[in-house]
Amino acid sequence: MKRNFGVLIADVIHSSRRGSLSALLAARLRGASAAHLRAGRIRVAYAITAGDEFQVVPASIGMIPELIFDLRRRMQPLGLRIGIGIGGIQGTIKEPVNRLVGEGFSRARRAIEDVKNGEVHRFPALTAFRTGRPAFDRVANLVYGLSDTLYLGVTPAQRRTIEAYIATGSVKCAARRLRLDKSTVSRNLKRGGYWQLAEAAATMREFFGAEWS
């Protein structure tokens, strides 16, 4: 039986408007590679494949939702379009990932092109899936399309609050770090859609794990 792998391809939105993009992107990816390798979320380090694009192979298909959620946070202030493909990969998975080929990569490439061309939904979306399973793709694309709608509406203040909450693990500690009152932190988390985004990521991890075990 053919073994399936996940492939993630991402690129930076409005990259032409950013000065010194290469240095910022490289720095963010070094941090993401170190954290995600340490946490067992990816098989090899992130590899830049073009000026504003990078790829990675997640440690498992079930890890993809958690990886997307954390990657969008770590790459700020860079906004990302993300294409996910699931399929076979030829040869041994080793660095650099941009030299690997296979069905998973071709599907991820088509998925990110769907995002760029606005072919995923009738509303703006940042994430798309191509897995060879149409029913699965419909569910995954819908959930992430709705999550992306929330994500696109998050303000800088709400992002700072979300980061502080994730870093400290409590509303009280986040309020202390940001020098805000707890009610403001709670309001920012709620209005920034944090609870919906976090629950969607957790639920989709279970869904992916069950569907691709």
Give the helices and strands, then pairings.
Layout lengths: L4 E8 L8 H18 L8 E4 L2 E4 L7 H11 L5 E8 L15 H14 L10 E4 L3 H19 L3 H13 L2 H8 L3 H10 L2 H18 L2
Helix pairs in contact: 2-8, 4-8, 5-6, 5-7, 6-7
Question: What attributes characterize this protein structure?
Answer:
single chain; 213 residues; alpha+beta; Alpha-Beta Plaits; 8 helices; 5 strands
Characterization of the model:
With 213 residues, the protein is of the alpha+beta class. It has a domain at 5-133: Reverse transcriptase/Diguanylate cyclase domain (Alpha-Beta Plaits, 2-Layer Sandwich). Helix content is 52%, strand content 13%. A five-stranded mixed β-sheet has the order 2-3-1-4-5. α2 runs antiparallel to α8 (194-211), α4 (134-152) packs antiparallel against α8 (194-211) and α5 (156-168) packs across α7. The longest helix is centred in the C-terminal third of the chain and has 19 residues, at 134-152. The chain is globular. The two termini are 13 Å apart.
In short:
The protein is an alpha+beta fold. The chain contains eight helices and five strands, in the order E-H-E-E-H-E-H-E-H-H-H-H-H.
